[in-house]
């Protein structure tokens, strides 16, 4: 191993060598070539990165424009979206009429439901430009006079179209996002990401049934009985869900009932959620939650201005843009005191409480806001011991700032009301979570767009408790003794008016503390980088680096941030009235900062590793604090003068005891194989057994998707037995003959290992090794192509019950008898028959399907596909004046600038050894060209001794020996701190880590395709290939019902299902759970930004994979040995690699001999030598 001293001694020489390397003096290119700008649409330019550095925050922007001269009365200004559109420089389309609008969007008629008669004054804004090479944008030009200069809100009326087919970006589950520019520049950081909400509604909820009942009466709804005794409700086994109950003047109760679809044993089925296209009004505001109210923009000159909206996510249609005065009495949101004064003449309403079941919102902000079942309290309503009934909202997917759920209601008496909620907040120990209360209807809102009635409504507080709570919501102030005093919110509602209550996630009173913690994190990170540039990543604890003399400001900052974090902790404890483990985290971090800043920094070297860890801990604390989970069971619209009591928070002892006992008893009788079924199964009904090895959250999502309305069980009326198992369970189960029908998520190498042992069935047919002729027929889905080129298939092996079908539109129709006779007459033998796999194969990249093939048979359907991409810190590269590298030549040319700052580039040598060989035009195996060689010999000999493979191996070795790339490193930590501004690794894994553990650098990094290598076989001279890592859904040999298994595998890997799963897992776990769907079309419907999708698609167009053959496990082991021989022992890379070739080929030959596969001559010789040596 080379020592650090030696590395430093040759640093200058290497810098010069690297600079020369930029001009082509490298080991893998005789003449340097400039890589084409293939990343132009997915990687940031140097200009973009430098511009990022000079943007101020909104707080700084607002402070610079706080002069009192701008506090004046102004008139509203309307920008004509059609006439003022800069058509030549915009990627936008004026919608003159419905046909033009549809044509410009390449959309279907159904996408414009609710659009109305507004064709002549709107503009369609796609996600990308016409070429699909960059984000779409639209610009408008307008002029202001001197009298019109001042502070304005920016108000935009927009429509969310559902674009299903378009070259310019399809709609997905993501919210609409745009970057705002004024005169070509982003005015402040927060304007770079404006979120325009969509509206989503639950689709499988019954139409409401309304009935008036007297106390003591029985209300009947489709056989469901609910007793009303003394005005209270009792829920039976299949209780209806009650949206609201009101009291009318004649004393009767009006019960409005909704129901979520249930399966045959009473379980709630996850509702279908669909986007509702509506016109909405948006006023530019902060998406981080740090700033209340709306952004104010200063237009301070008598001149022409240009406003630009640049797409980040999703298409949209704009109807109007207005500059609304941000000054004057009409622009100011009143305080609660002012609101009460305005309504001081309004009486207190009386009567009974209007109850709204929280699991029944009328609309939600995104598809992840969904109801859930929670049985932690017997007082939850509704609840059942024998079934899982949805009874809460907010357990998952409803915690991010800006998410909301909306509820419509009316009242029967005008007057003042409170709003109560039965809720549980147990995630932020020692703290509270906040929600913002917005209203639309009556005196509230802008049209149907909600607004806060007063300032304090933005900070409704939900305190921590392990138990359920039931109380009026409100805000808190401090009395003269510093004690918290609660104030219940009051609202004026008018009889007969329909109101909509929006419960929106916000930071409330926590925002200033979280923002201070984030500022502290940024300051500490800057200190870490400065220390790193002086000491390196592994400082010597016994060296005096003289920090007091060289960087005294760092010591001062460390001590100041220790004081700041302690102050935040103390203030939060005072605010919350208690403490807990969540607050203790801040005190722990403050102590380590105090130690490092004291004693002239002498303890800094010994604590650098701890500081790096605590930077991540503080980032996690900030992220958790932003996402306080609040589960809501019910909402009450409470007359201010009512005598009715709120529902109990905690269930009584006997009620809880009986619920636990009955739940335990019912657990023995629950028919889990019928979960999700909507029709009672008959004797010949089909069931498919499915296993997966993943987390419980992932398993629950698949369970809910299978059981949902429109899911697999509902669509095919086939029960699914879904089991969560450990990864090493499959092999023993196969050996014992008790395996599943389908297994989800089997790695490509394991797929081939099982295939060669006849344990899985080839889904592409022609699998003569695994299936006999009869077994092939049992697969029940033959595909036959007639003379017209049509494919038909036949179901059922029993000829008397055979059903013959042919394609028709998106499905199949029965064939006529004449067509059936023609089909039988020309029916191919089983060896010519294949499954419908060919119809779905093109949904996946060739790299994914190739990885699952053996001897020209495919043994699985790709489920996930990971691959390496390049992540880069835009701020660091911008500061250093470095472009994002397009080629390895360019990347190496950056090293001197990085290494002089003690920075490095991170790439795992294990993955680099593989993809570099493919980038240079090599292959892991000989005899892979079926047009030249017999396919039976494919994989019979390794190709690591070829000239290309040796050249690639030598180059990778040089990265670590000559250029000092680190061999082992914590990619997320080093990337977050900036000491490693470029990291190459699996795109989803690194992305998922950074979005959670590096929130402080959000917006400062991106990812793009890998740098390219010189390759004379490529048209442009460069190859940008990354290698795909694939997992698959497979069908096990011995499956009882192969057609049903095939239907499930095909359904589970389809684009819509994969996209839905990817979006749901993000909703449940968070942004750290981005899913690597293998289905190419699924990427379009997942929640990536336009730039992220562009980068992923660019890399997907440059993919390869290492095909697995018997014995293929051995090559990676010996490649690692060869690399370590070269790196640790200084062995020549060529000799190191060549020394292991005979052993690799011998092991391959041994495995092929085991499975009766032909052996290449040289491999056979190697095997004979190995066997002979065993007898010497």
Textual characterization of the structure:
It is a single chain. By secondary structure, this protein is an alpha+beta fold. Among the domains are: 1-56 and 868-924 and 955-1023, D-Maltodextrin-Binding Protein, domain 2, CATH 3.40.190; 65-202 and 276-331, Jelly Rolls (Sandwich); 512-626; 672-782 and 828-863 and 1032-1082, D-Maltodextrin-Binding Protein, domain 2. The chain is built from 34 helices and 52 strands. The strands form 15 sheets. Strands 1, 2, 3, 5, 16, 17 and 19 form a 7-stranded antiparallel β-sheet that branches. Strands 20, 25, 28, 31 and 33 form a 5-stranded antiparallel β-sheet that branches. β10 and β11 (224-229) form a beta hairpin. The longest helix has 25 residues, at 511-535. The protein starts with a helix and ends with a helix.
CATH architectural label of the domain at 672-782 and 828-863 and 1032-1082: 3-Layer(aba) Sandwich
Shape, per Cα inertia axes: globular
Rg to the nearest angstrom? Answer: 33 Å
Report on the biggest sheet: 7 strands, antiparallel
Please, how many helices? 34
The residue ranges in which pLDDT falls below 50 over 5 or more consecutive positions are 1-37, 215-243, 766-787, 794-801, 827-834
CATH level-3 fold name of the domain at 672-782 and 828-863 and 1032-1082: D-Maltodextrin-Binding Protein, domain 2
Number of strands: 52
CATH class of the domain at 672-782 and 828-863 and 1032-1082: Alpha Beta
Looking at this structure, what is the CATH superfamily of the domain at 672-782 and 828-863 and 1032-1082?
Periplasmic binding protein-like II
Mean pLDDT: 81
Distance between the termini: 36 Å
Strand proportion: 15-25%
Secondary-structure class:
alpha+beta
Helix content: 25-40%
């Amino acid at each position: 191993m080379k020592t650090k001293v030696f590395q430093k001694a040759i640093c200058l020489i290497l810098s010069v060598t690297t600079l020369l390397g930029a001009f082509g003096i490298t080991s893998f290119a005789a003449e340097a070539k400039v890589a084409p700008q293939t990343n132009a649409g997915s990687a940031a330019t140097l200009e973009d990165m430098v511009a990022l550095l000079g943007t101020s925050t909104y707080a700084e922007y607002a402070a610079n424009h706080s002069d009192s001269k701008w506090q004046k009365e102004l008139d509203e200004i309307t920008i004509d979206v059609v006439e003022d559109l800069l058509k030549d420089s915009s990627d936008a389309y004026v919608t003159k009429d419905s046909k033009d609008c549809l044509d410009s969007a390449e959309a279907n008629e159904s996408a414009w439901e609710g659009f109305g008669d507004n064709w002549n004054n709107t503009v369609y804004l796609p996600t990308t430009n016409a070429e699909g090479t960059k984000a779409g944008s639209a610009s408008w030009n307008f002029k202001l006079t001197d009298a019109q200069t001042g502070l304005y809100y920016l108000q935009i009326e927009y429509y969310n179209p559902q674009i299903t087919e378009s070259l310019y970006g399809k709609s997905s589950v993501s919210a609409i996002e745009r970057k705002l520019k004024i005169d070509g520049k982003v005015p402040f950081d927060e304007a770079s990401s404006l979120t325009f909400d969509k509206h989503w509604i639950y689709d499988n909820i019954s139409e409401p049934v309304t009935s008036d009942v007297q106390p003591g009466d029985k209300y009947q709804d489709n056989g469901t009985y609910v007793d009303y005794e003394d005005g209270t409700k009792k829920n039976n086994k299949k209780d209806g869900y009650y949206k609201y109950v009101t009291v009318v003047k004649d004393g009767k109760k009006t019960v409005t009932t909704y129901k979520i679809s249930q399966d045959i044993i009473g379980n709630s089925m996850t509702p279908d959620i669909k986007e509702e296209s509506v016109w909405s009004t948006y006023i530019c505001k902060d998406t981080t939650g740090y700033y209340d109210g709306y952004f104010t923009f200063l237009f301070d000159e008598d001149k022409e201005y240009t406003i630009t909206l640049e797409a980040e996510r999703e298409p949209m249609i704009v109807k109007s843009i207005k500059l609304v005065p941000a000054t004057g009495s009409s622009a100011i949101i009143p305080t609660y005191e002012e609101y009460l004064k305005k309504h001081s003449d309004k009486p207190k309403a009386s009567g009974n409480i209007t109850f709204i079941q929280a699991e029944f919102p009328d609309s939600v902000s995104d598809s992840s806001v969904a109801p859930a079942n929670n049985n932690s309290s017997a007082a939850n309503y509704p609840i059942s011991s024998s079934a899982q009934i949805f009874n809460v909202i907010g357990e998952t997917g409803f915690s991010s700032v800006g998410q909301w759920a909306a509820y419509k209601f009316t009242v029967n008496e005008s007057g003042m009301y409170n709003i109560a909620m039965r809720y549980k907040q147990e995630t932020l120990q020692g703290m509270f979570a906040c929600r913002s209360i917005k209203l639309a209807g009556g005196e509230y809102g802008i049209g149907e767009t909600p607004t806060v009635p007063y300032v304090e409504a933005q900070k409704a507080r939900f305190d921590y408790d392990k138990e359920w709570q039931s109380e009026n919501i409100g805000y808190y102030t401090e009395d003269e003794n510093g004690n918290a005093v609660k104030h219940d919110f009051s609202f004026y509602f008018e009889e007969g008016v329909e109101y909509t209550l929006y419960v929106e996630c916000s930071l409330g009173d926590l925002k200033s503390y979280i923002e201070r913690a984030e500022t502290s994190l940024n300051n500490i990170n800057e200190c870490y980088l400065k220390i790193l540039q002086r000491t390196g990543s592994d400082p010597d604890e016994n060296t005096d680096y003289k920090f007091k003399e060289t960087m005294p400001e760092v010591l001062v900052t460390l001590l100041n941030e220790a004081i700041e974090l302690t102050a935040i902790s103390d203030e939060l404890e005072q605010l919350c009235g208690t403490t807990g483990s969540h607050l203790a985290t801040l005190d722990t971090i403050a102590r380590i900062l105090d130690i490092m800043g004291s004693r002239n920094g002498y303890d800094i070297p010994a604590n650098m590793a701890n500081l790096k860890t605590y930077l991540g801990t503080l980032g996690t604390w900030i992220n958790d604090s932003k996402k306080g989970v609040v589960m809501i069971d019910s909402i009450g619209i409470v007359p201010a003068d009512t005598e009715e009591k709120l529902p109990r928070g905690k269930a009584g002892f006997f009620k809880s005891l009986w619920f636990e006992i009955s739940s335990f008893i019912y657990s023995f009788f629950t028919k889990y194989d019928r979960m999700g079924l909507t029709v009672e199964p008959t004797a010949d009904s089909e069931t498919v057994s499915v296993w997966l090895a993943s987390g419980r959250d992932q398993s629950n999502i698949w369970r809910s998707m299978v059981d949902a309305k429109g899911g697999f069980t509902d669509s095919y009326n086939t029960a699914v037995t879904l089991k969560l198992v450990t990864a090493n369970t499959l092999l023993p189960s196969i050996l014992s003959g008790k395996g599943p029908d389908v297994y989800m998520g089997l790695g490509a190498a394991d797929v081939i290992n099982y295939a060669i042992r006849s344990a899985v069935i080839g889904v592409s047919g022609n699998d003569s090794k695994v299936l006999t002729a009869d077994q092939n027929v049992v697969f029940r889905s033959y595909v036959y192509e007639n003379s017209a080129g049509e494919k038909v298939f036949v179901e059922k092996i029993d000829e008397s019950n055979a059903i013959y079908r042919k394609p028709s539109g998106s499905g199949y129709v029965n064939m006529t008898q004449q067509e059936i006779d023609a089909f039988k007459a020309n029916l191919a033998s089983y060896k010519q028959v294949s499954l419908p796999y060919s119809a779905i194969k093109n949904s996946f990249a060739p790299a994914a399907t190739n990885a699952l093939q053996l001897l020209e048979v495919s043994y699985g359907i790709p489920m996930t596909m990971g691959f390496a991409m390049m992540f880069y810190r835009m701020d660091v590269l911008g500061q250093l004046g470095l472009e994002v590298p397009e080629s390895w030549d360019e990347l190496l040319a950056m090293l001197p600038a990085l290494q002089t700052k003690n920075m490095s580039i991170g790439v795992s040598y294990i993955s680099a050894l593989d993809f570099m060989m493919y980038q240079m035009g090599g292959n892991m195996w000989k005899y892979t060209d079926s047009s030249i060689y017999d396919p039976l010999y494919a994989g019979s000999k390794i190709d690591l001794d070829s000239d290309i493979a040796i050249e690639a191996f030598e180059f990778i070795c040089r990265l670590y020996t000559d250029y000092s790339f680190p061999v082992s490193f914590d990619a997320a930590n080093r990337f977050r701190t900036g000491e490693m501004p470029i990291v190459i690794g699996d795109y989803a894994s690194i992305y998922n880590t950074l979005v959670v553990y590096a929130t402080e650098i959000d917006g400062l990094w991106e990812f793009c395709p890998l740098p390219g290598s010189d390759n004379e076989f490529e048209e442009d001279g460069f190859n940008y290939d990354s290698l795909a890592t694939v997992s698959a859904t497979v069908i096990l040999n011995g499956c009882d019902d192969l057609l049903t298994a095939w239907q499930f595998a095909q359904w589970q890997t389809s684009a819509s299902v994969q996209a839905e799963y990817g979006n749901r897992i993000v909703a449940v776990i968070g942004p750290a759970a981005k899913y690597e769907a293998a289905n190419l079309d699924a990427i379009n419907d997942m929640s990536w930004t336009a730039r992220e999708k562009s980068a992923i698609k660019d890399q997907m167009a440059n993919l390869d994979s290492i095909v697995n053959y018997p014995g293929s496990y051995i090559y990676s082991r010996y490649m690692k040995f060869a690399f370590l021989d070269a790196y640790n022992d200084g062995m020549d890379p060529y000799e190191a690699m060549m020394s292991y070739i005979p052993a690799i080929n011998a092991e391959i030959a041994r495995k092929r001999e085991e499975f009766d596969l032909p052996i290449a001559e040289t491999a056979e010789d190697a095997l004979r030598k190995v066997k002979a040596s065993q007898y010497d």
